[in-house]
Amino acid sequence: MSGLPKLNFPAIRLRARRRDEAVEVWDSLRGIYLVLTPEEWVRQHLIAYLISQCGAQPTRIVQEYAVSLNGQPQRADVVVVDDLARPLLVAECKAPHVKIDGKTFAQAVRYNSVLGARYVVLTNGLRHYCCEWRDGTYCPLAGFPDLRG
Known about the structure:
CATH topology: tt1808, chain A
Helix content: 10-25%
Largest sheet: 6 strands, mixed
Shape: globular
Radius of gyration: 15 Å
CATH architecture: Alpha-Beta Complex
CATH class: Alpha Beta
Distance between the termini: 35 Å
Number of helices: 2
Number of strands: 9
Strand order of the largest sheet: 4-5-6-7-8-9
């Protein structure tokens, strides 16, 4: 894991193993090993942050949440659901070298047009953006840059 950059999240401990040429990490939410890609590195850090710093219950975090857009199956990276299993937060994770921009925001907004979550989070592990769907518009939360264009 030494080839992966230090992220702008608190450090986490991951259980890892080498399988053939790939490094795999244990995903405790799904109970399986996953290939450690740069995007997965970011996703695991975001999930750990949501649990340890934001108080999200692990049982309410869904990875690769199915979203149907115009009849086409898509997957939101991370969705946190409320007590009634309704999406509360949708997050889009990108690899650290991928710039978070208006295109990334548009992707998350498309997912959220179906999901109806209150919060949208975008991260590449180095930069984070968070906005709230309020009164029919997306409002950046305090301390987060505006990506709406």
